[in-house]
Specification:
180 residues; extended; two-stranded antiparallel ribbon
Length: 180
């Protein structure tokens, strides 16, 4: 319990450092190193980069969804509202002709659409690593297409597993007999 509390304190410290320290440093350096309209351009680019970073943060989750074929860690409504927020701010940026608002939010809208598309594709998908059994004429067929994904330790033994599967499949399975 104490370790978890230490981790929480550590996390809060870093959030404060990044939110207050980083942005204070950016404001200070922008005010000291730039003048006039150039200051607005520099601050606009800094804010645009941070906005894109916020919208792009779910990319690691998108990679995990593709790799595991599961949307367990990517809630649909988060992606939906990310897209909604992005499109609203995109059009606001277009109406006031502010490139620094329109560009990152347009990109955020596209990333949100990509997340929702992944959600629709993988919401009912089953994992490829699962072993499926189907009976065809008394033979058992095992799906071993991704032995390496299911258990990396078995990757070196894949030929022996296929040979064993072939031997099992060659023996006829008769219903009604108990092999005790």
């Amino acid at each position: 319990m104490k370790s978890f509390l230490n981790f929480q304190v550590f996390t809060v410290k870093w959030i404060i450092i990044f939110n207050l320290g980083d942005y204070s440093l950016i404001m200070l350096l922008t005010n000291l190193l730039t003048k006039g309209s150039n200051r607005v351009t520099v601050m606009g680019w800094i804010c645009a980069v941070h906005s894109v970073a916020v919208f792009a943060s779910p990319l690691s989750i998108m990679r995990q969804v593709i790799r595991t074929r599961s949307v367990e860690h990517m809630p649909f409504f988060l992606s939906f509202f990310l897209s909604l927020c992005g499109i609203v701010w995109f059009f606001y940026g277009l109406f006031i002709k502010d490139f620094f608002i329109a560009l990152p939010n347009g990109l955020g809208f596209l990333l949100g659409i990509a997340q929702m598309t992944l959600y629709v594709i993988y919401k009912n998908a089953t994992k490829d690593a699962e072993i499926t059994e189907t009976q065809q004429k008394g033979n058992i067929e095992l799906n071993l297409s991704s032995v390496e994904d299911a258990n990396p330790c078995l990757a070196n033994h894949q030929p022996e597993i296929k040979e064993l599967t072939t031997i099992i499949a060659e023996e006829p399975v008769e219903s009604g007999k108990n092999n005790a």
